[in-house]
Amino acid sequence: MKRPLLLILCVATSIGPALGGELYRWVDERGKVHYGDQPPVQKNMKSQQISGKGNVVEVAKETYATTVAREKSPVTLYSNECGPVCDQAKDFLKQRGVPYTLKDPAKTPETALELKKLIGALEVPVLVIGGKPEKGFLASTWAALLDEAGYPKAPLIPPKP
After folding, report:
1. C-alpha angle with apex 50: 45 to 51, nearest 5 degrees?
2. Whether 105 contacts 128, CB under 8 Å
3. What is the chain's pLDDT, residue by residue, as a tens digit (161 residues)?
4. How far, in Å, CA of 50 to CA of 83, rounded?
5. Contact 27, 33 (CB under 8 A)
6. Could you tell me the pTM of the whole model?
7. For the CA atoms of 125, 156, 73, 109, what is the dihedral angle to 10 degrees?
8. Residue 6's beta-bridge partner residues?
9. DSSP-assigned letter for residue 52
10. What whole-number distance in Å separates Cα of residue 118 and Cα of residue 127?
11. 3-state SS class at 65
């Protein structure tokens, strides 16, 4: 019983460095393409080193519920450097893990005009969820609107402090 387990362990540990190391591609004199962890033995062959991620597993950055909510009700935040209120608004969305588009009406006249048409004034912050605007930042109101739109209460990956 111990021998097969030992054999599997030896094979697994010997394969690991090969998967995470360098990878080369070259074509031989017959035109056949080869790949390997070592460059070709013959010096006259041109080889190309392939850069990769090694043995990295890609994972989703957001939950399925977030993806569905984002597609159904995208979030846009109209904000600028207005001080603590705008900072709290951005931080609220970050802590909740809500993907959003940030638009600063102070930077472009088009965005300012867009905001003026949306709420009738140039006030920030303004949260737009699926086309419905909410002026000002109040955490409980924003939380209720995000809940209604289907956004999860917590992100898949907690934000870095």
Report:
1. 155
2. no
3. 556 555 555 555 445 444 556 777 878 778 788 878 877 777 666 667 766 655 666 667 788 999 999 999 999 999 999 999 999 999 999 999 999 999 999 999 999 999 999 999 999 999 999 999 999 999 999 999 999 999 999 887 777 76
4. 47
5. yes
6. 0.64
7. 40
8. none
9. -
10. 11
11. helix
Token pair of 11 as six digits: 């094979």
Tell me which DSSP letter residue 123 carries: -
Q: Which amino acid is at 115?
A: L
Task: Please report, for residues 112, 113, 117, the alpha-carbon distance to residue 120 in angstroms, rounded to integers and kept in the order given.
Answer: 11, 9, 5
Q: Which phi and psi angles does 148 have, rounded to 5°?
A: -60, -35
> What is the distance between the alpha carbons of residues 26 and 142, in angstroms, rounded to a whole number?
57
Q: What's the DSSP call for residue 51?
A: P
**In angstroms, what CA-CA distances link 65 with 5, 76, 128, 160?**
41, 18, 19, 21
Residue with tokens 């709290």: 88
Please provide the size of the chain in residues: 161
Q: Which domains does the chain have, with CATH numbers?
A: 21-52 (no CATH), 64-149 (3.40.30.10)
